[in-house]
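Protocol step 4 of 5: obtain the predicted structure for the target chain.
Materials: sequence only (see below). No template structures provided, no constraints applied. The aim of this step is simply to have a reference model before the mutagenesis design in step 5. Sequence pasted as it appears in the construct record:
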Amino acid sequence: MSGPALAADGVTVEARGRAILRDVSICLGRGERLALVGPNGAGKSTLLRVLAGTLKAAAGRVTVDGAPLASLDRSIVARRLAVVPQQAALPFAMRVEEVVALGRLPHEAPLRGARPADRAAVAAAIERVGLGHLLGRDARELSLGERQLVLLAMAVAQASPVLLLDEPTVHLDLRHQVEAMELLRDLNERDGTTIVAVLHDLGLAAHFFPRIAVLDHGRLVADGSPAETLTDDLVRDVFGVDPAIVRLDRIASG
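Step 4 output (structure tokens):
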């Protein structure tokens, strides 16, 4: 492998004649942990979809380990990138453990099915995310927060070196938000997983992510540590709120 774990170079995305992303470039080395923040409509989820290869850019390119993402077979992409969407539709009844096991499909040999190593990875992911009490349940009958944790466990089971998450805490209560963030930090620091997460909560971003990229109106306006990016002026100008209300300093130092 050569090159950065994941990079976007001059990415522009257009829809209905309007630019959703404008010449965005961002580069992640292996083992980095990055939060994408910005107001609604800033282009955060769009950028994540481009990085995941599920949305084609009008200009620019994305590379994974130095190779153009567009040139890679989808099975190879699935082994390198795991994606946790805000919510995924389940078209038919599936037990929690069956959904988590979907994360092993990129690793299974054709026509041979799950191996002992795959089953062990699924069991380990379920334990790591804390889903043991949900085993046997139909995932469609779970709360939105519980389903979000199941999707996170599926990505953990996938064991890809890069993990992309679109608002992973959106349906979670406060305790589970913190636990999810602690899990991401552990995956990053202990397993070396490169992580990119779209977040709305600036406090969580500042506390759990050493690097923050701020998008506004489709442009990358800041990229660096929380102290460098979430300044009073930026919070006021980009998010339109009094930075004293957000209390970033208190959260980031806690």
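Step 4 remarks: The radius of gyration is 18 Å. The beta strands are 6-15, 18-28, 33-37, 59-64, 67-68, 81-84, 162-166, 194-198, 211-216, 219-224.
Proceed to step 5.
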